[in-house]
Amino acid sequence: MNPLASISPIYTALLAVAAPFIAFLYQAMMGKRDQSGIAALLGIGCSFIFGGLTWLAIWNHPVVSAQLNWFTIGASTFKVGILLNNLSVLMLFLVPTVALPVHIYSRAYMKGDPGIHRYWMYLSLFCFAMLGLVVMDSLLLMYIFWELVGFASYLLIGFWFTRETAVQANKKAFIVNRIGDLGFLIGLAIIFTQFNTLNLVDLFGEGGLIDQSRITGGLWVSPVNSMDQIWLTVAGLAFFLAAMAKSAQFPLHVWLPDAMEGPTSVSSLIHAATMVAAGVFLLASVFPLFNESALLFIAVIGTITAASAAYFALGQYDIKRILAFSTISQLGFMMVGIGIGTWDAALFHLVTHAFFKCLLFLSAGAVIHEMAHLKAHSQLDFDPQDLRNMGGLKKYMPKTFILMSIASLALAGFPLTSGYLSKDSIIISSFEWALSKGGFYLIIPVSLIIVSILTAFYIGRLIFKAFLGELRILDQVQEKLHGVPLHEASKTMLIPMMLLGLCCLFPLFSLNPVSYHDSWLMDGLLLDEYSFAPSHSAHLLIPMLLLIGSVISWVIGWKWYVQNKYPLNTAGFALKASFNQGYINELYQRVFVIGTLKLAQFCYWFDRYIVDSFVAFVQFIVLSLSRLSVWIDKYIVDGFVNTVAAVAYWTGNQVRLVQNGKLQTALFSVFLFVLLGLIYLIFF
User: Which of 272, 422, 452, 611 is most open to solvent, judged by the fewest CB atoms within 10 Å of its CB?
Assistant: First the structure.
């Protein structure tokens, strides 16, 4: 009997979450004394093993949860616990599955970095936060880990803090994500006010409080009263705002391209199955909150995000920025999957995207690694991440070329790859959904088809410019070195890339390479039938259209970027707008940054010259009144009082002289008083 089989999935899940945290604590205590990364590697390795055991025990089995009392406020008791269902254990296994090869890769990629001890510590904290997020059974606990994920990403993005660009990038990511976190907090407050609990099972479980307030199943129509409906709609949109920031949806996507300032291995982890996936996971967890209007809004935002990011990727030259915009675009696809009610398809694409996007970034990291070495050896001044300095790398890095090509085909949705299955599940479902709605709803699937073809083009452009043709700085390098010292990446980097390459192919997800319905993952996540009827013609025509469009885009790319028959004007507005990301950053700079500074300057001017002047004027009036009051008090009031006192004193002195005991003085006094009396009687 296997002793591991008798371990409760609750314990294995807790061990999976705790292992990176223990590694983080160890590395924090050791500091620079331990730079090997073995603790971080062991921690994520344990998470992979225990996450896998938890997945095996829970997948397609009854939900398991465990709780302990945490604290009590009034009549409300908050509990801490974990929830294990198909969704949570899928993410619990996916995160370490992607993070493990990243850790192995990092041992070679980050070798020799002076801050390597901080790197391992931050990476372990990041993985712990993400693993905790996906298994928590309370929205409050999810919010805590949600914030911890954001904090850890802040540390990783700004890892090279001596670079001003890295400092600005992590601040930008932190500020934009605070906007989304405010939405999460508002959603928490509304849910707790309405239901007096934040427990996911009580709220969203079968027969839970959300279900009880609905008249119809998955897509609700009317709750108990109209006011509840309004507040629940607001709560759903608040949670979507949180997902917009974390999963980089338009217009809160601006932080993610700048997040490339961190190490490439960090970018791989953030873009694969961790931080940016948290928003999609959150929406899937609270899916019953959304009504049809909210879901339509999510689908529209996802479509705009997918289309705009694909357009921006077309004009980029930084190899990592192209992949960053690709991530934003693919997250838009996932949001469309949520918006049309097929959150299972969205999660399917999240999982497949995790593998091929992780491989794309690690491959890009291998290329950048070698180009940086070439720069150091040749002492030439060029950007090792710029495609315009690459070309012909296939000759020097053939294995990296093959692996990156596999990942690129998966991103483009080419047959026999995992991306073909998951992307088709969203595009075809969106077409079926739009047919059931009619009218302008068809704009969404048509847009997704166009975006998918653009995706094939820009990732083909990356491959063509980086790996084919001739090295663009070959002449300069040969003048310096009489050769090109480029070579394949080390085995420590290649082996995890090869494992990810295998995960980019269809057998891992479905034995049927052309039908996503046969995927074990879709079977495990789909709880109910879709709200729209299937279209068999769409399952045939859309994949053919996407394949033909992709092939045509690659032929065009080959002519443009390999045969150098580029016909477009690089100074044209369309390409400039693409390169500058639609000038959205400039717009935000003018409206929010410069606008805030101008407002601050105006407030300073208003405070100094209006408020302070008014205060000074009031001060002058008050001081003048005070001086007048002092003068009146001193010379009028005190003068009158002193005069009366002086008269009384003088009179008293004069009267006192009468009492000197002399007869003539007494006679004189009597005569004076008699005289005064006669005068009074005569005149008055």
Answer: 611
pLDDT above 50 for 314:
yes
Residue 216 has pLDDT above 50, yes or no: no
pLDDT at site 330: 94
Of 516 and 337, more confident: 337
- Take residue 339 and report the two structure tokens written for it: 């918006």
**pLDDT tens profile 150-180:** 999 899 998 888 888 888 988 999 999 999 9
The predicted structure's pLDDT at residue 25: 94
Tell me if 232 sits within 8 A of 178, measured CB to CB: no
Chain mean position to CA 596: 22
Residue with the bigger pLDDT between 545 and 74: it is: 545
37 secondary structure, DSSP code: -
Contact 416, 505 (CB under 8 A): yes
For the chain, the residue count is: 684
pLDDT digits (tens, 9 = 90+) for 71-99: 888 777 888 889 999 999 999 999 999 99
Q: Of 526, 527, 523, 497, which Cα lies nearest the Cα of 510? A: 523
Report in angstroms the alpha-carbon separations of 188 from 146, 200, 210.
13, 12, 14
What lies within 8 Å, CB to CB, of 219 at 6+ separation is 290, 291, 292, 295, 341, 531
In the chain, what are the domain boundaries? Answer: 1-137, 342-574, 615-683
Residue 64 main-chain phi, psi, to 5 deg: -120, 135
Look up residue 539 and give its two tokens: 């399952």
Tell me phi and psi for residue 627, to 5 degrees. -65, -45
The sign of the dihedral angle between the CA atoms of 237, 243, 248, 249 is negative
Query: 269 vs 356, 435, 594, CA distance in Å?
Result: 12, 37, 33
**Cβ-contact 127, 93 below 8 angstroms:** no
C-beta separation of 504 from 410 below 8 A: yes
Nearest to 198 by CA among 212, 182, 187, 211: 187
The CA distance from 650 to 180, in Å, is 86
CB burial of 398-436 (b: ≥16 within 10 Å; e: otherwise) equals eebbbbbbbbbbbbbbbbebbbbbbbbbbbbbbbbbbbe
Count helices and strands (H / E) in the chain. Answer: 28, 2
Residue 262 has pLDDT above 90, yes or no: no
pLDDT higher than threshold 90 for residue 23: yes
Using the structure block, give the residue that is written with the tokens 């397609």: 60
Round to the nearest angstrom and report the end-to-end CA distance of the chain. 136
DSSP secondary structure letter of residue 205 = S
Query: Is residue 316 within 8 Å of 237, Cβ to Cβ?
Result: no
pLDDT interval class at 527 (50, 70, 90): low
Beta strand pairing status for 76-84 and 64-73?
antiparallel
pLDDT digits (tens, 9 = 90+) for 95-120: 999 999 999 998 888 888 888 989 99
DSSP string, 405-458: HHHHHHHHT-TTBHHHHHHHHHHHHHHHHHHHH-GGGGHHHHHHHHHHHHHHHH
CA distance 643 to 649: 9
Q: What is the DSSP string of 336-401?
A: HHHHTT-HHHHHHHHHHHHHHHHHHHHHHHHHHHHHHHHHHHHT----TTBGGG---TTTT-HHHH
Given a contact cutoff of 8 angstroms between Cβ atoms, the answer to whether 413 and 448 are in contact is no
